[in-house]
Amino acid sequence: MNKPSDPPKKCPLTTAFGAPVVDNQNSMTAGPRGPLLMQDVWLIEKLANLNREIIPERRMHAKGSGAFGTFTVTNDITRYTRAKIFSAVGKQTEMFARFTTVAGERGAADAERDIRGFALKFYTEEGNWDLVGNNTPVFFLRDPRKFPDLNKAVKRDPKTNLRSATNNWDFWTSLPEALHQVTIVMSDRGIPASYRHMHGFSSHTYSFINAGNERFWVKFHIKTQQGILNLTDAEAAELIGRDRESHQRDLFDAIERGDFPKWTLYVQVMPETDAEKVPYHPFDLTKIWPKKDYPLIEVGVMELNRNPENFFADVEQSAFAPNNLVPGISVSPDKMLQARLFAYSDAQRYRLGVNHHQIPVNAARCPVHSNHRDGAMRVDGNYGGTPHYEPNSFGQWQEQPEYREPPLKINGDGDFWNYRVDDADYYKQPGDLFRLMTPAQQQVLFDNTARAMGDAPEFIKRRHIGNCTRADRAYGAGVAKALGLDITVTLGEREQAGAG
Ligand code: HEM
Q1: Confidence (pTM)
Q2: CA nearest 67: which of 106, 97, 110?
Q3: Tell me, what's the ipTM?
Q4: Angstrom distances, CA of residue 490 to CA of 19, 367, 465, 471, 498
Q5: Ligand 1 binding pocket includes 322 (Cβ within 6 Å)
Q6: CA-CA distance, 381 to 397, in Å (whole number)?
Q7: Is 134 one of the annotated active-site residues of the chain?
Q8: Strand partners of residue 221
């Protein structure tokens, strides 16, 4: 195959099945002015193929950029996990990363105010480990029942087909647990200057299992070595006017010129039994773990050093799933994570097909012996004549009990537990974050919020002011002022008496 940069070399055109194409300029017609002939099979193949070039875009995180790279262990964490990827300092594992915006469609501009997806795939010797995180340590929700609604609220309005500040803020402000995430997205970090200049987070709590079969709770932090760099609303608007693909261009060009971006992977590790003692819910995705309680422990460095040769093959067809876990790295009771264990592979069976694990970017680089067979687009040997069933008398498909995890204690009655009643601490951590900001950063937060709320009705703006005030009185007052609203009209007696 010739690349544009290669010296010209004859590279003959064929049909999909290898037969020579005789004429790629002129359709076959009955006479020079006549109608087409059905026997022009190359024309029919071209038109039919065009109709099938498109695949469904991801329901969210549709716009993204990807690159291959290497992960290198720099610090020994084997006392916490038996995952082979971390087994020795200096060990390297091949990886693939995809960064995204969330709400925009496949052709959306990059420099939008939005969360960024931060999805990593590590091709380990014991299977693929996907860490499908974001550039923020928390999320809008703590119950997956609301995720489809979140998606509807941030995507286009069913009638106008426009993004709607009303839909967006009506939903967010009705779920006070979203305030932590909303505060981050509206802050000066809400529009990263590029994918290279942002941190990544697992956000969820996962678990580590060590060689002694002990469990630890763990959160992953991936810190950019390029430094944090953000855009203001005005800078982003100006940039989008010039370049809708600024993040793709930045990442691609940096890797092409050999300026390989790097991130340092850290973990916060919590002993299993601490989960019952900490004053916050350690599996609540709207909460962070304070670093003073659980300091960052360095693990390794990831470097992105190879652009995909073909965007569709590797980036569009990549499939990341939180259920792709390896021995030594496992789940937690976080109910958001639990739902994601189902949602991603299910989406990918629809988007890419049941055999998407065979697409090279998704394929494990270790032996795979899964007992799944057949299905559309099965392109390997399909396990040939190996017996189908298990148990069998031929040693096939043997389970591996040596990887069993320690039992996980679970208790409680099955019910629709209402966390709004049982665990109503939505405001402390957003308030702490607000109080960490400099006065200038707080002002940016107020102004960004006011601009983003746009033409949303006043009662929704007042609801948000109420939520902010419960986090910190100055937060509510600042947002009210930026919105040109009188705060005292907004607040109930409790807040006026001095919340925050
Ligand atoms: C993409 C569902 C929460 C990060 C997706 C996709 C689905 C999905 C269906 C598209 C998958 C595909 O077509 O390949 C959900 C559900 C959630 C949830 C049901 C909550 C219950 C989260 C959270 C994070 C996250 C909390 C981050 C911590 C991502 C990322 C992608 C993605 C980064 C893009 C992956 C890629 O680059 O291909 N999500 N999501 N999601 N989600 Fe979520």
Answers
A1: 0.95
A2: 97
A3: 0.99
A4: 73, 62, 7, 15, 14
A5: no
A6: 16
A7: yes
A8: 201, 266
